[in-house]
């Protein structure tokens, strides 16, 4: 099988949406144009494990224009857009293995199909390809020159591998680029997570108490946007600095068990495990909606909730009702999978423009520099990051000032003080 998608008949609809996203991804389009003439990835096999969305399709088109031979699989069982997967196969000639709602064995069969491609470069969102290669598919290590990683949770896993001396090739941490996490994690997750909750439930946010667990880049974005829509936002944190920041940003901060008692909608974005667990379920307000936008659905202890429930049923697509022994109801969205991708379409193209510009340029950087890079996790070079910010501003028609020669000299000097 050289692809595995739901239905190739969806391909035309997918192409139309891919082109729509492309019209808001000018930075990536300019890279694609350059790649088409310079072919920096010529002859290289790339195995990508990313959310199969319209924006990812445009990244795949860019890598292909650069000469790469690509296989793409999903990085989450519920994030695939089936029309996009079909269009990638039918219209863009990219071997794709992804079906929305695939079960765990199928998910890993798809990851294995990507590894069977014998990659020279890996491109992960959550480190599943790299993790599997190191644990079970070590024969693939021989051909790999390096990889890239998209998200916070993936970078944490890779740094843990590196600290254990287990990581066998260099990887660029795309997530650490300023033009990635400051925009994608904050504004992208902020908007698309609420979009997912709203599309799934059609609930009004104004006047509701919305709890955000985790006040990192994603949590800040969600809190900011929910506040803007009139929700009463509560933040739960374990880091005193982040908690203090949330307090000074004007939010109530309290322990999760206390937040549970007043929560109408709860969103987890911590990258941690069992953030909503037994004590929170015991205190949860009747009718509360809970969802996760962190990388893995272990942020909510779903097996425990399932065991506690006297009955469950799907009340709307991707909205599961759990009735507890005392009659309280809890509604879980999308089985705790990334709610912005499972219930909506993931981040808007405009932010993915920068994230995926970083991915494309990180792949080019890896090809040019792999010989001199030891196994480890590397940042996106600062000049690439700054170049993307500059280009993005240009495409937005925003002009900024430049330092004068006098200012440059002043800022570089140490001998001018109080006058
Ligand atoms: N939904 C998406 O499309 C999307 C996009 C980007 C990142 N992510 C994922 O979202 C998660 C968060 O990413 P980030 O960039 O905001 O990370 P981050 O490191 O900036 O923030 C995570 C925050 O969670 C806090 N935290 C950890 N354990 C906690 C607990 N038990 N209770 C409360 N707070 C806790 C940490 O102190 C930290 O402030 C990661 O899993 C990341 O991969 C998802």
Which key features would you list for this structure?
419 residues, alpha/beta, eight-stranded mixed β-sheet, seven-stranded parallel β-sheet, binds nicotinamide-adenine-dinucleotide
Note down, in words, how this protein is organized.
With 419 residues, the chain is an alpha/beta fold. It contains 17 helices and 15 strands. Bound molecules: nicotinamide-adenine-dinucleotide.
Helix content: 40-55%
Shape: globular
The helix/strand class is alpha/beta
Which ligands does the model contain, each kind named once? nicotinamide-adenine-dinucleotide
Sheet with the most strands? 8 strands, mixed
Terminal CA distance reads: 75 Å
Strand content: 15-25%
Taking all Cα atoms into account, the compactness measure Rg is 22 Å
Average pLDDT metric:
97
The total of beta strands comes to: 15
Pick out the low-confidence regions: none
> With helices defined by DSSP (H or I, 4 residues minimum), what is the helix count?
17
Short summary:
With 419 residues, the chain is of the alpha/beta class. It has 17 helices and 15 strands.
Task: Please outline the helices and strands.
Blueprint: H1 11-22, H2 26-38, E1 45-50, H3 54-65, E2 69-74, H4 82-90, E3 95-97, H5 104-116, E4 121-124, H6 128-135, E5 146-149, H7 152-163, E6 170-173, H8 178-201, E7 209-213, H9 217-228, E8 232-236, H10 240-248, E9 252-253, H11 256-262, E10 265-268, H12 278-283, E11 288-292, H13 302-308, E12 311-316, E13 319-323, E14 329-333, H14 339-342, H15 349-369, E15 376-379, H16 382-395, H17 405-412
Parallel strand pairs: 1-2, 1-4, 2-3, 4-5, 5-6, 6-15, 7-8, 7-10, 8-9, 10-11, 11-14
Antiparallel strand pairs: 12-13, 13-14
Helix pairs in contact: 1-3, 1-4, 2-3, 2-15, 3-15, 5-6, 8-9, 8-15, 15-16
